[in-house]
Amino acid sequence: MSQKMTGAQAVLESLKREGVDVVFGLPGGVLLPLYDAIYQSDIRHILVRHEQGAAHMADGYARATGKVGVCIATSGPGATNLVTGIANAYMDSVPMVAITGQVNTWLIGKDAFQEADITGITLPITKHNYLLRSAKDITRVFREAFFIARTGRPGPVLIDLPRDVTVDEVEFTWPEVELSGYRPSFKAHEMQIKKAAKALMESERPVIYVGGGVKYARAESELFDLAVKINAPVTTTLMGVGCFPEDHPLSLGMLGMHGTKYANYAIQESDLILAIGARFDDRVTGKIASFAPRAKIVHIDVDPAEVSKNVRVDIPVVGDAKNALQGLLKEVKAKGRSDWNEKTDGWKKDYPLRYIPDMNIIKPQYVIEKLCEIAPDAIITTEVGQNQMWAAQFFVHKDPQKFISSGGLGTMGYGFPAAIGAKIGRQECDVIDVAGDGSFLMNSQELATAVVNEIPVKVAVLNNGCLGMVRQWQELFFEKRYSATILGRTSPDFVKLAEAYGAVGLRATKPSEVEPVIRAAMAVDRPVIMDFIVSPAEKVSPMVPAGATLSEILELEWCDTDQYCHLEKIYAQGRKDILGQEGF
Amino acid sequence: MKHTIAVIVENKSGVLTRIAGLFSRRSFNIDSLSVGATDNPDYSRMTITVNGDRDILEQVIKQLSKLINVIRVSELDAGESVERELAVIKVNADKESRSEIMQIVNIFRAKIIDVSHRSMIIEVTGDEEKIDAIVQLLRQFGIKEIARTGKVSMVRGARVIKA
Question: Which DSSP category does B69 fall into?
Fold first, then answer.
């Protein structure tokens, strides 16, 4: 029952068949035929104000729902504006299909108006990409693109769509996917599972090290069962945050540069690391030569290229995390509590994550704790930097689809559009973007998107008047020369900014105002910016200096008094303007 | 350490860019690369020589295998495969030197495919060492131009690397 339609209509029909109900985009010249088809389709289109926002929204939508996120941008600048968002999705293995307009096929290569070689540009940051040259290939390519994006190790796929391809008429067909060069591994090898199980049984000091792969495989319950069955402590990467409930006694929280002391000590002392869907990133391992010196390493990953890429793996298990964990669960026998559990419990007791509360100045960690107390089930998205680390450390995470953060690429400006995407995908959830005054401005134009489309996301700006993470490094390693990191009075008044867009703006300048502001924000069904004026000198602690061994983790003096006074002086003038009072 | 790998890829535009891009992005070194269509016009075969240790080779093979347009990647063990390279070499050749050059050509079982008053073009096939050797010998006459293909390689015996 084939049917004649335009290429643009075939695109929309393909999206529908792939289960897409919302797309994020911004039109342009070459996309006119596609947008005409969107106008007549029942797929929801969210108009963004910058294409980077569209990519991050599709990404946030995908992470919150597990479905493939779709973004659309026009040729040339529209397409290049997607690039950061695509790279971000690639680094964090997010299933995404990016559709870009392209000039007419006969103009390609002629430096036509708004032409950019986007397939060339995105070659190293997509799982795969396509330049369509004929309308008859549309359905096959879209089907393949969605299949590639969501299977194996997920990732972004870009489809470049020349204008004439969307205008040409085509018979609609829906061909099966046949990709002889793409056979993602799924089932883990039984022999390897047995070896891994044996190693786990023999281990006296095991640690389970969990990354985003567990989230994408939806293997949290298998992970939980395994950890509990063998009484093995669990630590997660930033991408794996929430895969194991952080209030469970076996949870060691996050490891790595700003991980917990106890997670890092446990890794260094362990005799076996069971890595699942994690890739031994440099922010996690610290100095690679002295990473977990006594540990045998078992690595479960769906991507064979991750095995032995950064560290030598003793027992590789290539396959889907859920499948492999189900296999492991059958092979291992229950183990009781051991001296090792006593030891890690002791570290947890001795070296908790902490900060020094203050009666007069808002501590950023306090804001996160209050958010967690008031909205424990909210989806938390983050920007990048100190805000991101505090959100990871001080919120008690229990669900990986509810912590959404730019891990691999570390994209400032990610959290707010990602929050909008997440909210659209999970309307029943509260969604809060934990932001900094630096990163929020990188995509604050999407306030218009949130307001116009009535997407009631909440933003908690931890406003410390500086690019805090870089300032922290300057304080520690560059003799307090704050080169280009002090924003001070140059940030806009976030309350007025919110109001200018038609959103709600609230401000807290004292610790006592934090809770009322959060409660007020959560009570309104509109987009809200909460501007928390927080201590400028606060540092993220603990910290493994770059290139150091994990056990060399430092407890930083959270707030150096000299620094506090120094920064206060710099800010005083600007803050007076905002707060209408002297200093803090 | 040099390794030779055979890569069967889809015969589509842009595939060579994907492979070359992968090598440069991951800082793998290509020593030589040659491409040609296979018996089946849908697929091409590349022979790539890579410089690096075992770990690097393993990463190269795994990363190549991840490309959607790559159908198969196989390492070719030097001891178990035949390797050939082709070179055409334009050398200075006048009355005095011509016969000496022809002797060298004969020893190497090479061919003369063009002659003029002052030069000739020699075609030679063989493994890398053989080509290096004849180039070395011809150098005394003055090499004006040289074009080498890069290596192609195939496993001896019944084993077959195909799509």
Answer: T
